[in-house]
Design a protein that fits this description.
Butyryl-CoA Dehydrogenase, subunit A, domain 3; 4-stranded antiparallel sheet; 10 strands; alpha+beta; globular
């Protein structure tokens, strides 16, 4: 379908596709097997300006928005979502600074990420605070103009590889989530260390680690926004980031669909290509329809969010839950079309199916997204009464 992209958006999409096909495709199986972080590819994305598509021009970016970011993520995900999430997590780590940072903080951190010189990450999840993000226990006790940070963050994408981290910690435990604040940390700070790189089912090339804080001393300049705004900053950041997860899903589904069509045309059974069988045609038809529907939703939501509306939680959750469910189904159907070959690592759909599962889990499980949507619908109906 024609989504009426501008010439600049078409160029962004084409450039992202070329990098994905020329740089990621030849090494995706090796990166997956070795669980190797795709730093060289991220550097290329920075050199070409794609790392800054959503960052204002005055900070060295392209000046686009969530929509342009989604275009890049979709093209990378079509080849490998481990590469895509490593790239996308820059946005997850930077959007809190974009939304709530001081001019000094923006000048310090945004240009380096826009140029691909530094990598960012976001630290919210903890061993006992996953879906219940309000249950965080990491603390930042104030001592004059300093904060002393103690605690643990778990399953942090780009952990250990990123240079810049936005971390949510309690500055007032008695107030619960209302007592949380956000802080900007840098790799190498004393008292800030990393756990082992986790061994994962999918997205193996991305880095997932714990973050450990032991009497990590922060200055008041490290505070992002105001004290007590941490939980609000985290929720608004996730609202902004969910379409990016949906874009990973759309890209993965598109890649799985294309591989399935190619295979179904080449694979012969009973003297004819299996794409001539109605059972296969119907599977491909559903895969294509669902993928296009997911893409249309993502594009519509991203464009709407770039107009800066205030209440986006419902549509943001929709932009995550539907495409990621689609990606899981399309990847599973792709393996089914490949048959026994689809179960083998020699063929890309095996990796795609493993990779797809995380999309339904990270940055808020799909069950939590449905809670958000349901609560929003209830409130909207109540306001109309």
């Amino acid at each position: 379908m024609d989504y009426f992209l501008t010439e600049e958006q078409k160029e962004i999409k084409a450039l992202a596709r070329r990098i994905a096909e020329e740089k990621a495709l030849p090494v995706r199986a090796e990166l997956d097997e070795k669980e190797e972080f795709p730093r060289e590819i991220l550097e290329i994305l920075g050199e070409t300006g794609l790392s800054g598509v959503y960052i204002e021009e005055k900070y060295g970016g392209f000046g686009g928005g969530i929509f342009e970011l989604c275009l890049v993520i979709e093209e990378l995900s079509r080849i490998c979502i481990a590469v895509a999430v490593s790239f996308a997590c820059n946005g997850l780590g930077l959007y809190p600074i974009i939304l709530f940072g001081t001019e000094e903080q923006k000048q310090k951190y945004l240009p380096m990420v826009a140029k691909g010189k530094k990598i960012a990450a976001f630290g919210l999840t903890e061993p006992n605070a996953g879906s219940d993000a309000g249950g965080i226990q990491t603390t930042a006790k104030r001592n004059g103009n300093r904060y002393i940070l103690n605690g643990t963050k778990q399953w942090i994408t780009n952990g250990g590889e990123a240079d810049i981290y936005v971390v949510i910690a309690l500055t007032n435990k008695d107030r619960g989530p209302r007592g949380a604040s956000a802080f900007i940390l840098e790799k190498g700070m004393e008292g800030f260390t990393f756990g082992k790189k986790e061994k994962k089912m999918g997205i193996r090339a991305s880095s997932t680690t714990s973050l450990f804080f032991e009497d990590c001393e922060l200055q008041k300049e490290n505070l992002l926004g105001k004290e007590g705004q941490g939980f609000m900053i985290a929720m608004k950041n996730l609202d902004k980031s969910r379409p990016a997860i949906g874009s990973q899903a759309v890209g993965l589904a598109q890649g799985a669909l294309e591989e399935s069509i190619k295979y179904a045309r080449e694979r012969h059974q009973f003297g004819k290509p299996i794409i001539s069988f109605q059972a296969i045609q119907h599977m491909l038809a559903d895969m294509a329809t669902q993928t296009e529907a997911a893409r249309a939703l993502i594009y519509a939501v991203a464009r709407y969010m770039d107009t800066n509306p205030k209440d986006i939680s419902k549509i943001s959750s929709m932009a995550k839950v539907f495409p990621t469910d689609v990606a899981m189904k399309v990847a599973t159907d792709a393996v089914q079309i490949f048959g026994g070959y689809g179960y083998m690592r020699e063929y890309p759909v095996e990796k795609m199916m493993r990779d797809a599962k995380i999309l339904q889990i990270y940055e808020g499980t799909n069950q939590i997204q449905r809670n958000v949507i349901g609560l929003a619908l209830n409130k909207e109906y109540a306001r109309k009464q």
